[in-house]
Specification:
About 20% of the residues lie in helices and about 40% in strands. The protein has helices at about 60-75, 95-100, 160-175, and strands at about 5-10, 15-20, 20-25, 35-40, 45-55, 80-85, 105-115, 120-135, 140-150, 175. It is of the alpha+beta class and about 180 residues long. The protein starts with a strand and ends in a 7-residue tail after the last strand.
């Protein structure tokens, strides 16, 4: 999956997201000022970058699990399971802005979520990258919601699942905070 640099929050952050088949959700609906949301046009997957108040767990792994659990709660998930959590190393030879961005802690898991007032749930893989900004009391959370099987039995094409999953770490490592004034 080819990635392209996108400005977030008026250029205060940048991230490399899939080049094709993404639309900025703010062109379709209202999006909170603390979020940037991008929707795939060829499946129901979405990418979200969100600025949140820093959560209590000091440990990055526990904080990532907390954000995953919080998302499951917000989604009214019928079930959720964390599969893997790990902190990525800092990128060698990173740009000056990227070098000032903390390395992300990645959390991968599953949620069963009934959407749009349906009773049967979608089976959704959730991948999170959490960037802890202690001095600003902020957690930046990058997430991808990747439905594998929808309630009606529709399946996301395997090549799209593979492309999104294989690009997630590269996307997470590309997030760069350009202007820390965003958090003032």
């Amino acid at each position: 999956m080819e990635l392209a640099k996108r400005d977030l929050f008026g250029g205060a952050m940048t991230v490399n997201l899939p080049r094709h088949n993404l639309v900025d959700a703010s062109t379709l609906r209202e999006v909170p000022d603390t979020q940037e949301v991008f929707l795939h046009t060829d499946c129901t997957a979405s990418w979200i970058v969100e600025i949140l108040q820093r959560v209590e767990p000091v440990d990055a792994v526990e904080a990532a699990k907390f954000h995953f659990s919080s998302l499951a709660h917000d989604n009214d998930a019928l079930s959720s399971q964390v599969v893997d959590v790990r902190t990525l190393p800092a990128q060698p030879n990173a740009s000056p802005h990227a070098a000032n961005t903390p390395p992300p802690t990645i959390c991968d898991g599953w949620q069963e979520v009934a959407k749009y007032n349906r009773t049967a749930p979608d089976k959704v893989e959730i991948m999170l990258a959490v960037y802890r900004l202690q001095a600003q009391n902020i957690d930046v959370v990058l997430s991808v919601n990747l439905p594998h099987v929808l309630a009606d039995g529709t399946r996301t094409p395997e090549d799209l699942i593979t492309g999104i999953k294989s690009s997630f770490v590269a996307v997470a490592q590309s997030l760069s905070i350009v202007d820390f004034g965003l958090f003032a």
